[in-house]
Amino acid sequence: MVVFSADERDDFTFIEFELPEGVIAPGELAQALVDAPEIDPRKGVVISGRGPVWLFGALVHIYHATAWVATFDPRLGAVVVETHTPNRKVGEVVLG
Amino acid sequence: MVVFSADERDDFTFIEFELPEGVIAPGELAQALVDAPEIDPRKGVVISGRGPVWLFGALVHIYHATAWVATFDPRLGAVVVETHTPNRKVGEVVLG
To answer: Which ipTM value was assigned to this complex?
Structure first.
């Protein structure tokens, strides 16, 4: 199971996921994407949490119609991985 | 720097990346995406390598027009994170 929370910031939505059981099986991925918060696509999104690469990858994909997508790296901050706005560049660190 | 290799399989391209310096900085991400192999979008793609979540996330995005995208998890195999073909489902493990 994946539990999501969404925190609205000025120009992006901060999405945090948690795995209450500490792990997620691939068979749970489709349901997790159904449970992921709907967000305002005019804003960016930052995806944060402790989970496998494939969970991040799937979340990056479902939010690809937003202004920009970043994944949160605890060592660095949120790194922009895709963007459709001139205000953000791939590789830019937000919340660094 | 990110070094890529691409291995053609019957129905997907297996892309492996390596970080010769062991690390990648966010400022190197845009160039890495330029260097990523071009692949046949009619096939799927499996992305494999040891690197940060944001590198995987950016690669998942640039390959999103392919038949399906999976990321390789050494503990599980390649987990499908997005698909545009009825032959593959999100969460399916390929190469498991």
So the answer is: 0.96
